[in-house]
Amino acid sequence: MVANWRLKKALKHYSNIKILIIGLLLLVFPMGAVAGNITGTIKVKGLRSPANILVYLNKAPAVAVDLSSARFVMDQRNLTFSPHILPVPVGATISFPNNDKVDHNVFSLSRTKKFSLGSYKPGEIKTVRFDKPGFVELRCDVHAEMLAYIMVMKSPYFAVTDTKGQFEIPDLKLMERTGLRGILNLTAGKYFIKTWHEKLKTKREAVKLSDEGTIVIELNLFRGTPSVLYK
Ligand SMILES: [Cu+2]
């Protein structure tokens, strides 16, 4: 009887260890998890919404980006540019459809890309290629209140926060939406996160990505003047 009880106990003990080992393995190698990305949330003080904040890796690894099927759009609708901030990899072409009932005249005086599309009609689409990294302030000659930003990025490791202030680098949703291809997950190492928003002080933060994969960070931003995109 005693021996039988001991055997049962030993077997139970063994199965507990087995569960423990499987649990540990799942912890180290989570099934289905994609290794190598940085996700997080941005909280802002003195601003209504944590949306539309550019988050990017400064001095990011160089990757060959396939722009052949990528489509980027800066829409003009209800006398507003949409999106408010549009980051694109260097070399990208952006189309500017006029989806309003009035003419627009989109232009930029920025050093990164100086251009004027001239006055164009509802339903018309103009395109511009952005071949130099940097910041582009977008205006309309007809409507002084129209303002948007195009950020021409050296690397595709960037994201824009959603209405909850959340972001993901690399941004899989952006890749799917725009048809951008060839962006790989990040390898283990140290990265420098930077932010840009026209009303928020730029934040820099070192992030260490280990072999285990995803790292979740939280950033607190305050009102102020942003610094330049690239030094
Ligand atoms: Cu306009």
CATH C-level of the largest domain:
Mainly Beta
Q: What's the CATH architecture name of the largest domain?
A: Sandwich
What is CATH's topology name of the largest domain?
Immunoglobulin-like
Number of structurally distinct domains: 3
Q: Give the SSE string.
A: HEEEEEEEEEEEEEEHEEE
- Contiguous runs where pLDDT drops below 50 for at least 5 residues: 21-34
Biggest sheet details: 5 strands, mixed
Ends distance: 78 Å
Shape: elongated
Give a count of the beta strands, DSSP E runs of length 2 or more: 17
- Whole-number mean pLDDT: 88
Topology of this structure?
Layout: H1 2-28, E1 38-45, E2 54-58, E3 72-73, E4 75-77, E5 80-82, E6 85-89, E7 93-97, E8 106-108, E9 115-116, E10 125-129, E11 134-140, E12 147-153, E13 158-160, E14 166-169, H2 172-178, E15 189-196, E16 204-209, E17 215-222
Parallel strand pairs: 1-17, 3-7, 6-12
Antiparallel strand pairs: 1-14, 2-13, 2-15, 4-5, 7-10, 8-9, 8-11, 11-12, 15-16
The chain binds copper (II) ion.
Supply database-style keywords.
231 residues, alpha+beta, Immunoglobulin-like, 3 domains, five-stranded mixed beta sheet, four-stranded antiparallel beta sheet, 2 helices, 17 strands, elongated, binds copper (II) ion
Structure explained in plain terms:
With 231 residues, the protein is an alpha+beta fold. It has three domains: 1-31; 35-63 and 158-231, Immunoglobulin-like (Sandwich); 71-154, Immunoglobulin-like (Sandwich), CATH 2.60.40. The chain is built from two helices and 17 strands. It has helices spanning 2-28, 172-178, and strands at residues 38-45, 54-58, 72-73, 75-77, 80-82, 85-89, 93-97, 106-108, 115-116, 125-129, 134-140, 147-153, 158-160, 166-169, 189-196, 204-209, 215-222. The strands form five sheets. The protein has a five-stranded mixed sheet with strand order 6-12-11-8-9, with no helix packed on it. Strands 13-2-15-16 form a four-stranded antiparallel sheet, with no helix packed on it. Strands 14-1-17 form a three-stranded mixed sheet, with no helix packed on it. A hairpin with a 6-residue loop joins strand 8 and strand 9. It is elongated. It binds copper (II) ion.
